[in-house]
Amino acid sequence: MVDLLDDEEIQQRLDELGDWEREGEEIHKVFEFDDFKGAIEFVNEVARLADRYDHHPDIDIRWNKVRLSLSTHSEGGLTPWDFDLANDIEQTIE
Question: How many independent structural domains does the chain possess?
């Protein structure tokens, strides 16, 4: 079990992340790559991180674009887990 974040905490964590956006009870971001292969390699790296966290994003792949959405469904909203995983995902693309 993990506690839900309140609106102020969510906004603070979003500001720290950069260009992730909130939509209801999830955060999301679209990543763009040179080609489909680059997008898939990124998704594979995200899968490894997600398994390590045992926290899995919704993933939508459109050729060279990957949309990731994070929410802690078991808690019904946004928790620190979502932002920790998003931060680690950001680190993989730097």
Answer: 1
The C-alpha atoms of residue 67 and residue 28 are separated, in whole angstroms, by 7
Please calculate the CA angle 39-45-48 and round it to the nearest 5 degrees.
Answer: 145
The CATH number of the domain holding residue 38 is 3.30.1360.20
Over 90: is that where the pLDDT of 1 sits? Answer: no
24 part of a folded domain: yes
Pairing state between β 21-23 and 26-32? antiparallel
| Joined tokens for residue 40 | 């898939």
pTM, to two decimals = 0.93
Domain for residue 52, yes or no? Answer: yes
Q: Are 93 and 61 in contact (CB under 8 A)?
A: no
Q: Measured between alpha carbons, how far is 20 from 27 in angstroms, rounded to an integer?
A: 6
